[in-house]
Structures are given as structure tokens and as C-alpha cells.
């Protein structure tokens, strides 16, 4: 199914639907800064729209600062972190869901993914939000992370001991 499916029966014009869909895909993290968007002709064919309609959408997105068109190279997503409706939580959730989905597609199960994440976090150093540099404490979390209940228990104990 196309990520650009539009409702021809809607009272909202097709070009506005497409623009809103692209803004959603950009602000939700599906398209990231620097990603190349489909060509105008390619998107027109995929969405079953006139070339001029898609061109109008791209021009509008560029005027609003969501994309930048580079002649003979394409349209690229701009940094939209300062745009309304863009929250770091949405972007982080989107990235995390994509990562977990890809791991599962490769045959990984949830406990293995948790353990890998804990190991990587441990290797990168303490969680800056926790404000701790204690390697033993991080190692404890990494071991416990394979079972989320154990991980939560350790986090609660560490917070209570402060």
C-alpha cells in the first residue's frame, strides 16, 4: 500500500492532502533531514496525480521550509526540529519503532533487543538524565535489561538511594 494514498471523495483538495501527508511523514521522522523525496514525476505516478499538482505541493513545502529543491538532484528534507508540531518524543519513538521492527525482521526477539540496547547504552557511558558515571551500576542495568522487570526494579532502587 502506498504511503501517499489520498481520499478522492474528501472535501479537502488533493494537493492539500498530499502536502499534509508529506508534512506528517517529515515531522514524524519517516523522512529524516537530508533524505531525498521521490521525484515529482515518480510521486505523481504513485499517487495518481497530475505532475503540476505534485510540483505545486513541493513548491509549497519548499516555501514553508520543509524541503529544499536542488536543480537536477531532487528535493531533500530540511531540518524541521523548529517547526510546530515536531516533538523530540515523536521523532525518538519513530526511530525506536523502526529500529525494533528491523531487528525483529532480522529474527531478533524482544529480550535480545533489550539486552543489545542496554549493552550499547552501557558502552556509550552513563545515561545523562541519570547523572551517574558508575560503571558497576551501568553493568548491573545491562545484565538486568534482558528482563524489563528487573531493569525497572534496579532503576527504582537507584533512585531511592539518592
Explain what you see.
The chain has helices spanning 14-27, 40-47, 51-63, 88-105, 110-124, 135-144, 148-160, and strands at residues 67-70, 74-77. Helix 1 packs across helix 3, helix 2 packs across helix 3 and helix 5 runs antiparallel to helix 6. It has a two-stranded antiparallel ribbon with strand order 1-2. Residues 131-136 and 138-155 have low confidence and may be disordered. Helices cover 56% and strands 5% of the residues. It has seven helices and two strands. Strand 1 and strand 2 form a beta hairpin. With 162 residues, it is mainly alpha-helical.
Quick gist of this model?
With 162 residues, the protein is mainly α. 56% of the residues lie in helices and 5% in strands. Helix 5 runs antiparallel to helix 6 (135-144).
Order of strands, widest sheet: 1-2
* Whole-number mean pLDDT: 78
What fraction of the residues are assigned to beta strands by DSSP?
under 5%
Would you identify the regions where 5 or more consecutive residues have pLDDT less than 50? 131-136, 138-155
Supply the helix-strand structural class.
mainly alpha
Rg computed from alpha carbons, rounded to a whole number of angstroms: 21 Å
User: What is the helix/strand order?
Assistant: HHHEEHHHH
End-to-end Cα distance, whole Å, is 51 Å
SS elements, strand count: 2
The percentage helix is 55-70%
Largest sheet: 2 strands, antiparallel
Question: Which term fits the overall shape?
Answer: elongated
Number of helical segments with 4 or more residues: 7
Amino acid at each position: 500500500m502506498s504511503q501517499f494514498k489520498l481520499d478522492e471523495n474528501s472535501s479537502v483538495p488533493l494537493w492539500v492532502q498530499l502536502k499534509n501527508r508529506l508534512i506528517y511523514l517529515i515531522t514524524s521522522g519517516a523522512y529524516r533531514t537530508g533524505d531525498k523525496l521521490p521525484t515529482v514525476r515518480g510521486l505523481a505516478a504513485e499517487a495518481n496525480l497530475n505532475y503540476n499538482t505534485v510540483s505545486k505541493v513541493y513548491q509549497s513545502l519548499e516555501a514553508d521550509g520543509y524541503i529544499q529543491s536542488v536543480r537536477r538532484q531532487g528535493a531533500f528534507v530540511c531540518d524541521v526540529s523548529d517547526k510546530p508540531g515536531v516533538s523530540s518524543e515523536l521523532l525518538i519513538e519513530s526511530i525506536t519503532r523502526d529500529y525494533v521492527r528491523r531487528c525483529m525482521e532480522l529474527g531478533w526477539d524482544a529480550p535480545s533487543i533489550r539486552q543489545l540496547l542496554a549493552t550499547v547504552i552501557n558502552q556509550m557511558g552513563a545515561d545523562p538524565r541519570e547523572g551517574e558515571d558508575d560503571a558497576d551500576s551501568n553493568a548491573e542495568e545491562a545484565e538486568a535489561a534482558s528482563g524489563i522487570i528487573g531493569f525497572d526494579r534496579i532503576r527504582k532502587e537507584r533512585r531511592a538511594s539518592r
